Inverse folding.
């Protein structure tokens, strides 16, 4: 599933760990977004990460 991740947190360590967990690319646009391909089975955990305030999921 194609999603766009908007990073709310500026903590580099948190971003690094989230990227490793969900296999996200290292790129961040000027707008603070990362386009990503997320597996369906990872979506509930990604939504929990969103609830905790680290990122915002955008469907573009």
């Amino acid at each position: 599933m194609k999603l766009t991740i908007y990073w709310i947190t500026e903590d580099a360590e948190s971003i690094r760990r989230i990227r490793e967990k969900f296999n996200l690319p290292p790129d961040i646009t000027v707008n603070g977004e990362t386009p990503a391909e997320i597996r369906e089975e990872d979506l509930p955990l990604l939504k929990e990460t969103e609830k905790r305030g680290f990122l915002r999921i955008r469907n573009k």
Q: What stands out?
A: The CA atoms of residues 12 and 18 lie 10 Å apart. The first strand starts at residue 2 and ends at 7. The mean pLDDT is 94.
